[in-house]
Amino acid sequence: MITPNLFHIKNTLQREPLTTAMNNPNQITIRTIELFAGVGGFRIGLERVSSKENKFEISWSNQWEPSTKTQHASDIYCERFGFEKHSNEDIAEVNVDEIPEHDLLVGGFPCQDYSVASTLKNSHGIVGKKGVLWWSIYKILFQKKEKAPKYLLLENVDRLLKSPASQRGRDFAIILSSLNSLGYAVEWRVINASEYGMPQRRRRVFILAYKKGTKLYNKLENFSTTELLNKELLLSKTFPVKPIDNKTLIIEKLDSDLVEITENFNTKTPKKNAFWESGYMVDGKYYTSRIEIDYNGEKSVLGDFLIDEKYVPKEFYIDDEELKKWQYQKGAKSIERVNKATGHEYTYSEGSMGFPDALDKPSRTIITGEGGASASRFKHVVEVNGRHRRLTPIELERLNMFPDNHTQGVTDSKRAFLMGNALVVGIVERIGQRLIDEV
């Protein structure tokens, strides 16, 4: 079992800014901090594309799960990468001065309500809701001032672009405007990993920000909007798209007052999209368009990532009696229900799902409730050699492109939960490779 992380090593090590090595003018080291680190998905992806000549160096990491006493994700992170330079405490309580200087900040932060209560007029700071982790990122950038990182690489669920439902796009507008106030340009893309040859159908929005004065920022002035969205943005180069249809192009100016955005953004047409799945923002103005994927490379399918059946523990197999429960959960159904609060009667309906999961297609999205033997509509079930079974922890790791047994040391259900919270590492690899080539 993994030894619990019983202490937090504070690292106040100061390093030289990102430069080339004295004995090798072509060598680049990008000092990186990983926030909301989970079990280290960003780190694995960035380290895979690192070399002696050009590398991402994780100089600090933070992982804290507020809802549980045992810090499973942090414990696994430390087991794989070491305790040194790792923080297992609430990021909102971390003293920013204790975070070493860095060139790149990465993390998959939760989708929350980012609304702003008020601005601090004297310091130009922001008062957001307590516990909303976007503001912990903002605090680091704001307090580091001129030593703030040159680049950010963030990940979130794609509904961020449409939340909240009552003011579609407001939360993302707050993020963009606050980054603009700190001197960053931003590009974003919703990426379904399977559409670029990876083994899981997982849609996430990736947000890349770069500071004024960097090579990537300056590049924005050298191309037209169409050229940038089509092929010149870093994310467009990494994940190619077909030429955009200008009919869907939206160009809008963001308000610099975050309270104004909180209260009034998209209130006139709250159900209308303000942001599409691809776009960029510079100098407070954003450009966004719908896209079509342009990928003709190799494809990955679920069946390619299964372990040999002789290594599957017996508890993962489903007997004939239990199989009936799974078939019911996966099937179409129409159920009469009563709202307990109002007494209103209504019919709850849901369609059927493919059962068992197809082995010749990418897997469905892994969810946090993937573990456990109980029948579920959303857990994966495969049929191999005429027998039905659930996916093992190693198979879930493979579908996220993690190393085999990366999460070993906790229960199978917890391993499944951790993979449901993780990202597809291959996306980070491709972005990391492009980033190190471009900077």
Automatic annotation (TrEMBL):
Keyword tags: Methyltransferase, Restriction system, S-adenosyl-L-methionine, Transferase
A Gene Ontology molecular function term of the record: DNA (cytosine-5-)-methyltransferase activity
Similarity field: Belongs to the class I-like SAM-binding methyltransferase superfamily. C5-methyltransferase family.
Keyword Nucleotide-binding: no
EC number: 2.1.1.37
Gene Ontology terms describing biological process: DNA restriction-modification system; methylation
Enzyme class label: transferase
Catalytic activity line of the entry: a 2'-deoxycytidine in DNA + S-adenosyl-L-methionine = a 5-methyl-2'-deoxycytidine in DNA + S-adenosyl-L-homocysteine + H(+)
Descriptive protein name: Cytosine-specific methyltransferase
Lineage: Bacteria, Pseudomonadati, Campylobacterota, Epsilonproteobacteria, Campylobacterales
Signal peptide coordinates: none
Domain of life: Bacteria
UniProt entry tagged with the keyword Methyltransferase: yes
Active site: 111
